[in-house]
Amino acid sequence: MKLISWNVNGLRAVLKKGFLATFTALDADIFCIQETKMHAGQAEVNTPGYHQYFNYAERKGYSGTAVFTKYEPLHVTYGIAPFFDDDEGRVITLEFPKFYLVNCYTPNSGGELKRLDFRGGWDEAFRAYLVALDKKKPVIFCGDLNVAHEEIDIKNPTSNHHSAGFTDQERADFTMLLNENFIDSFRHFHPTQVTYSWWSYRFAARSRNAGWRIDYFCFSKRLLPQLTDAQILTTILGSDHCPVELDTTNELAPDQDPVNKEESPA
Protein backbone atom coordinates (compact mmCIF):
# COMPACT_ATOMS: atom_id res chain seq x y z
CA MET A 1 0.00 0.00 0.00
CA LYS A 2 0.98 3.61 -0.53
CA LEU A 3 0.11 6.23 2.09
CA ILE A 4 0.51 9.97 1.50
CA SER A 5 0.36 12.88 3.94
CA TRP A 6 0.37 16.54 2.88
CA ASN A 7 -0.21 19.84 4.61
CA VAL A 8 -1.89 21.68 1.75
CA ASN A 9 -2.10 25.06 3.54
CA GLY A 10 -5.68 25.58 2.38
CA LEU A 11 -7.56 22.97 0.40
CA ARG A 12 -9.56 25.52 -1.59
CA ALA A 13 -6.33 27.26 -2.58
CA VAL A 14 -4.50 24.09 -3.60
CA LEU A 15 -7.47 22.91 -5.66
CA LYS A 16 -6.69 25.87 -7.93
CA LYS A 17 -3.06 24.74 -8.21
CA GLY A 18 -3.55 21.27 -9.66
CA PHE A 19 -4.24 19.32 -6.47
CA LEU A 20 -6.59 16.85 -8.11
CA ALA A 21 -4.08 16.07 -10.87
CA THR A 22 -1.40 15.47 -8.23
CA PHE A 23 -3.81 13.41 -6.16
CA THR A 24 -4.62 11.21 -9.15
CA ALA A 25 -0.99 10.83 -10.20
CA LEU A 26 0.12 9.77 -6.72
CA ASP A 27 -2.63 7.10 -6.61
CA ALA A 28 -2.32 6.56 -2.88
CA ASP A 29 -4.38 3.96 -1.07
CA ILE A 30 -4.80 6.43 1.81
CA PHE A 31 -4.25 10.17 1.38
CA CYS A 32 -4.17 12.38 4.47
CA ILE A 33 -4.19 16.16 4.38
CA GLN A 34 -3.78 18.82 7.03
CA GLU A 35 -4.71 22.50 7.22
CA THR A 36 -7.78 22.25 5.02
CA LYS A 37 -8.90 25.70 6.23
CA MET A 38 -12.52 25.12 5.22
CA HIS A 39 -15.96 24.03 6.39
CA ALA A 40 -18.42 21.61 4.83
CA GLY A 41 -19.78 22.77 1.51
CA GLN A 42 -17.07 25.33 0.80
CA ALA A 43 -15.38 23.21 -1.88
CA GLU A 44 -16.12 20.13 -3.95
CA VAL A 45 -13.30 17.60 -3.88
CA ASN A 46 -13.99 15.09 -6.64
CA THR A 47 -12.03 11.94 -5.80
CA PRO A 48 -13.78 8.95 -7.42
CA GLY A 49 -12.75 5.68 -5.82
CA TYR A 50 -12.21 7.14 -2.35
CA HIS A 51 -14.19 7.46 0.85
CA GLN A 52 -13.81 10.99 2.28
CA TYR A 53 -13.64 12.04 5.93
CA PHE A 54 -13.26 15.63 7.15
CA ASN A 55 -12.70 17.15 10.58
CA TYR A 56 -13.40 20.89 10.51
CA ALA A 57 -12.26 23.50 13.01
CA GLU A 58 -14.96 25.60 14.66
CA ARG A 59 -13.00 28.70 13.65
CA LYS A 60 -13.51 29.55 9.99
CA GLY A 61 -10.55 29.30 7.63
CA TYR A 62 -8.35 27.61 10.20
CA SER A 63 -6.70 24.24 10.76
CA GLY A 64 -8.74 21.15 9.74
CA THR A 65 -7.85 17.68 8.51
CA ALA A 66 -9.15 15.20 5.94
CA VAL A 67 -8.55 11.61 4.87
CA PHE A 68 -9.29 10.01 1.50
CA THR A 69 -9.14 6.22 1.48
CA LYS A 70 -9.78 3.50 -1.06
CA TYR A 71 -10.66 1.13 1.77
CA GLU A 72 -13.63 1.69 4.03
CA PRO A 73 -12.51 1.79 7.67
CA LEU A 74 -14.14 -0.18 10.42
CA HIS A 75 -14.59 2.97 12.47
CA VAL A 76 -13.75 6.70 12.28
CA THR A 77 -13.05 8.96 15.25
CA TYR A 78 -12.65 12.75 15.25
CA GLY A 79 -10.40 14.39 17.85
CA ILE A 80 -8.57 12.74 20.74
CA ALA A 81 -11.16 12.88 23.53
CA PRO A 82 -11.03 12.28 26.44
CA PHE A 83 -7.32 13.12 26.38
CA PHE A 84 -7.78 16.64 24.96
CA ASP A 85 -10.77 18.82 24.14
CA ASP A 86 -10.00 19.88 20.57
CA ASP A 87 -12.28 22.19 18.60
CA GLU A 88 -9.65 22.86 15.92
CA GLY A 89 -10.24 19.78 13.75
CA ARG A 90 -6.73 18.45 14.28
CA VAL A 91 -7.10 14.67 14.30
CA ILE A 92 -8.93 11.96 12.38
CA THR A 93 -8.45 8.31 13.31
CA LEU A 94 -9.42 5.47 10.98
CA GLU A 95 -9.51 1.95 12.32
CA PHE A 96 -8.65 -0.79 9.83
CA PRO A 97 -8.50 -4.53 10.56
CA LYS A 98 -4.73 -4.58 11.10
CA PHE A 99 -3.87 -1.06 12.25
CA TYR A 100 -5.07 2.39 13.23
CA LEU A 101 -4.31 5.31 10.92
CA VAL A 102 -4.09 8.66 12.73
CA ASN A 103 -3.91 11.89 10.73
CA CYS A 104 -2.75 14.85 12.82
CA TYR A 105 -2.11 18.57 12.47
CA THR A 106 -0.16 19.46 15.60
CA PRO A 107 -0.62 22.98 17.03
CA ASN A 108 2.13 25.50 16.32
CA SER A 109 3.65 27.18 19.35
CA GLY A 110 3.32 30.51 17.57
CA GLY A 111 5.26 33.74 17.46
CA GLU A 112 7.21 34.46 20.63
CA LEU A 113 6.16 30.96 21.73
CA LYS A 114 2.86 32.34 23.03
CA ARG A 115 1.21 28.95 22.60
CA LEU A 116 4.06 26.78 23.85
CA ASP A 117 2.21 25.76 27.03
CA PHE A 118 -0.86 24.81 24.98
CA ARG A 119 1.40 22.85 22.65
CA GLY A 120 3.00 21.05 25.58
CA GLY A 121 -0.42 19.97 26.83
CA TRP A 122 -1.30 18.78 23.34
CA ASP A 123 1.90 16.76 23.01
CA GLU A 124 1.28 15.02 26.32
CA ALA A 125 -2.34 14.24 25.44
CA PHE A 126 -1.53 13.07 21.90
CA ARG A 127 1.16 10.75 23.25
CA ALA A 128 -1.32 9.25 25.74
CA TYR A 129 -3.87 8.83 22.97
CA LEU A 130 -1.46 6.98 20.69
CA VAL A 131 -0.22 4.76 23.50
CA ALA A 132 -3.82 3.80 24.33
CA LEU A 133 -4.50 2.93 20.68
CA ASP A 134 -1.28 0.97 20.40
CA LYS A 135 -2.41 -1.31 23.23
CA LYS A 136 -5.32 -2.39 21.01
CA LYS A 137 -3.57 -2.75 17.65
CA PRO A 138 -0.58 -1.20 15.84
CA VAL A 139 -0.68 2.47 14.87
CA ILE A 140 0.49 4.48 11.88
CA PHE A 141 0.32 8.21 12.56
CA CYS A 142 1.16 11.00 10.18
CA GLY A 143 0.85 14.67 9.48
CA ASP A 144 2.38 18.04 10.07
CA LEU A 145 3.70 17.44 13.57
CA ASN A 146 5.26 20.91 13.75
CA VAL A 147 8.63 19.81 15.11
CA ALA A 148 12.03 19.32 13.54
CA HIS A 149 13.30 16.53 15.75
CA GLU A 150 17.06 16.68 15.30
CA GLU A 151 19.56 19.18 13.91
CA ILE A 152 19.72 17.17 10.69
CA ASP A 153 16.04 18.01 10.20
CA ILE A 154 16.51 21.78 9.90
CA LYS A 155 18.72 23.95 7.72
CA ASN A 156 19.76 26.44 10.40
CA PRO A 157 19.59 24.74 13.80
CA THR A 158 21.64 27.30 15.71
CA SER A 159 19.69 30.40 14.70
CA ASN A 160 16.37 28.55 15.14
CA HIS A 161 17.17 26.98 18.50
CA HIS A 162 14.37 28.83 20.29
CA SER A 163 11.95 29.07 17.38
CA ALA A 164 8.53 27.41 17.42
CA GLY A 165 8.99 23.85 16.19
CA PHE A 166 12.61 23.59 17.33
CA THR A 167 12.51 24.37 21.03
CA ASP A 168 14.09 21.97 23.49
CA GLN A 169 10.65 21.22 24.92
CA GLU A 170 9.04 20.29 21.60
CA ARG A 171 11.98 18.14 20.54
CA ALA A 172 12.08 16.39 23.90
CA ASP A 173 8.33 15.73 23.72
CA PHE A 174 8.78 14.12 20.30
CA THR A 175 11.61 11.98 21.67
CA MET A 176 9.30 10.86 24.47
CA LEU A 177 6.68 9.93 21.92
CA LEU A 178 9.08 7.84 19.85
CA ASN A 179 10.30 6.17 23.05
CA GLU A 180 6.79 4.70 23.40
CA ASN A 181 7.79 2.07 20.81
CA PHE A 182 7.16 4.23 17.74
CA ILE A 183 9.53 4.78 14.81
CA ASP A 184 10.05 7.84 12.60
CA SER A 185 9.79 6.12 9.21
CA PHE A 186 11.88 8.51 7.11
CA ARG A 187 14.75 8.60 9.58
CA HIS A 188 14.61 4.80 9.89
CA PHE A 189 14.96 4.21 6.17
CA HIS A 190 17.23 7.21 5.51
CA PRO A 191 19.27 7.80 8.68
CA THR A 192 21.66 10.39 7.25
CA GLN A 193 19.68 11.93 4.39
CA VAL A 194 19.10 15.68 4.61
CA THR A 195 15.68 16.39 3.12
CA TYR A 196 13.07 18.93 4.19
CA SER A 197 9.28 19.04 3.90
CA TRP A 198 8.49 22.69 4.69
CA TRP A 199 9.97 25.99 3.53
CA SER A 200 8.96 29.49 4.51
CA TYR A 201 7.41 31.59 1.77
CA ARG A 202 9.87 34.33 2.75
CA PHE A 203 13.43 34.89 1.55
CA ALA A 204 13.13 32.40 -1.35
CA ALA A 205 13.60 29.64 1.22
CA ARG A 206 12.47 26.81 -1.03
CA SER A 207 14.77 27.73 -3.91
CA ARG A 208 17.64 27.89 -1.41
CA ASN A 209 16.43 24.68 0.27
CA ALA A 210 16.44 26.42 3.63
CA GLY A 211 13.80 24.17 5.09
CA TRP A 212 12.56 22.06 7.98
CA ARG A 213 11.46 18.42 8.15
CA ILE A 214 8.25 18.65 10.16
CA ASP A 215 5.97 16.26 8.25
CA TYR A 216 6.09 12.62 9.28
CA PHE A 217 4.88 9.08 9.03
CA CYS A 218 5.56 7.21 12.27
CA PHE A 219 4.52 3.70 13.22
CA SER A 220 4.43 1.07 15.95
CA LYS A 221 7.69 -0.87 16.03
CA ARG A 222 5.95 -4.19 15.52
CA LEU A 223 4.81 -3.03 12.08
CA LEU A 224 8.39 -2.77 10.85
CA PRO A 225 8.34 -6.07 8.86
CA GLN A 226 5.40 -4.72 6.83
CA LEU A 227 7.01 -1.37 5.93
CA THR A 228 9.23 -1.00 2.87
CA ASP A 229 10.19 2.67 2.42
CA ALA A 230 9.48 6.31 3.26
CA GLN A 231 9.97 9.30 0.98
CA ILE A 232 9.68 13.08 0.99
CA LEU A 233 8.28 14.25 -2.34
CA THR A 234 10.12 17.56 -2.64
CA THR A 235 9.34 18.17 -6.32
CA ILE A 236 5.58 18.45 -5.74
CA LEU A 237 4.46 22.07 -5.49
CA GLY A 238 1.26 23.83 -4.48
CA SER A 239 1.87 24.42 -0.78
CA ASP A 240 4.69 25.57 1.49
CA HIS A 241 4.88 21.89 2.49
CA CYS A 242 5.48 18.94 0.20
CA PRO A 243 3.87 15.51 0.57
CA VAL A 244 5.50 12.67 2.47
CA GLU A 245 4.99 9.00 1.61
CA LEU A 246 5.00 5.66 3.43
CA ASP A 247 5.07 2.36 1.55
CA THR A 248 3.93 -0.92 3.06
CA THR A 249 3.52 -4.50 1.98
CA ASN A 250 0.07 -5.67 0.95
CA GLU A 251 -0.15 -7.60 4.20
CA LEU A 252 -1.54 -4.46 5.85
CA ALA A 253 -4.23 -3.92 3.22
CA PRO A 254 -7.75 -4.66 4.39
CA ASP A 255 -9.30 -7.87 3.05
CA GLN A 256 -11.77 -6.00 0.88
CA ASP A 257 -11.93 -4.57 -2.60
CA PRO A 258 -11.28 -0.82 -2.88
CA VAL A 259 -14.34 1.36 -3.32
CA ASN A 260 -15.76 1.26 -6.84
CA LYS A 261 -14.50 4.25 -8.81
CA GLU A 262 -17.96 4.72 -10.30
CA GLU A 263 -19.48 5.27 -6.88
CA SER A 264 -19.83 8.70 -5.37
CA PRO A 265 -17.31 9.35 -2.58
CA ALA A 266 -18.60 8.79 0.93
From TrEMBL:
Active site: 105, 144, 241
InterPro entries membership: AP_endonuc_1, AP_endonuclease_F1_BS, AP_endonuclease_F1_CS, Endo/exonu/phosph_ase_sf, Endo/exonuclease/phosphatase
Domain Endonuclease/exonuclease/phosphatase: 4-241
Region (Disordered): 247-266
Site (Interaction with DNA substrate): 241
Hydrolase among keywords: yes
Cofactor(s) this protein cannot do without: Mg(2+); Mn(2+)
Site (Important for catalytic activity) residue list: 215
Gene3D superfamilies, alphabetized: Endonuclease/exonuclease/phosphatase (3.60.10.10)
GO BP terms: base-excision repair
UniProt cofactor note: Probably binds two magnesium or manganese ions per subunit.
Single GO molecular function: DNA binding
Pfam hit, one: Exo_endo_phos
Binding residues annotated for Mg(2+), in chain numbering: 7, 35, 144, 146, 240-241
Superkingdom in the source lineage: Bacteria
Assigned keywords, A-Z: Hydrolase, Magnesium, Manganese, Metal-binding
Site (Transition state stabilizer): 146
UniProt cross-references to NCBIfam families, sorted A to Z: exoDNase_III (TIGR00195), xth (TIGR00633)
Family classification: Belongs to the DNA repair enzymes AP/ExoA family.
Protein name listed in UniProt: Exodeoxyribonuclease III
